[in-house]
Design a protein that fits this description.
Length: 211
């Protein structure tokens, strides 16, 4: 299979399919031996995600109305820092330190591991976070909350609301990371969450209403 022009990932999938098929044949005594046992496994090199074009991302973020401070702060924060959307949505006011020249956030990631994310390379996120906290008068509780006018609460905004907010911007692009990835806290949620827009993520044409 090595000289057939197929990509390593394609060869690996085809080898796995054949190996599984011949394993079934041998288990059911339809063949005596599995010829795939003599075929070496295919090593698939790890590839990096394609970066999102900066102009595309600026165009998308530019469509979010200036008055939508929550959404602008949320999506810009995820874009400039690369944190998972689940991590951003789980932010509380006490997790944010906007001290001058030492801005940072504390997020709870996979496996309930806490980590600190410096915001030195996220100037717009810093500015928008300050504005969002000030305009909403947030001194405690969740930073990104559901819309109170639509039955929201002071609890963190959930994935569905964030996704609806993104779709409301009228984006023509669909944003993926190495996800859209299932990444909820293992012990608390079965809801599908997603990593969002980051320069090291991939951008695909939008084909439906999904984020």
């Amino acid at each position: 299979m090595a000289g057939d022009g197929w990509a390593p990932a394609t060869r690996g999938r085809r080898r796995a399919s054949l190996a599984s098929f011949f394993r079934w044949l041998t288990q059911n005594d339809l063949v005596e031996k599995n010829p795939m046992d003599k075929v070496e496994s295919v090593v698939v090199p790890e590839s990096l995600p394609r970066p999102v074009d900066t102009e595309v991302m600026e165009s998308i973020l530019g469509r979010i109305p200036a008055k939508a401070t929550r959404d602008r702060a949320l999506f810009t924060l995820v874009y400039e820092t690369g944190v998972r959307i689940a991590e951003a949505l789980g932010l509380y006011v006490h997790d944010i330190d906007l001290s001058r020249d030492n801005e940072k956030i504390r997020v709870l990631g996979k496996g309930n591991r806490e980590r600190t994310v410096l915001l030195a390379a996220a100037p717009r996120a810093i500015r928008l976070l300050r504005r969002h906290l000030k305009l909403e008068g947030l001194e405690s509780g969740a930073v990104f909350r559901g819309d109170l006018l639509r039955g929201g609460s002071s609890q963190p905004m959930d994935y569905t609301t964030a996704r609806r907010s993104w779709n409301c911007q009228g984006s023509d692009e669909m944003i993926h990371s190495e996800i859209v990835r299932y990444d909820p806290p293992a012990e608390t949620s079965t809801e599908r969450s997603f990593d969002m827009i980051h320069p090291a993520r991939t951008c695909h044409p939008r084909t439906d209403s999904n984020l």
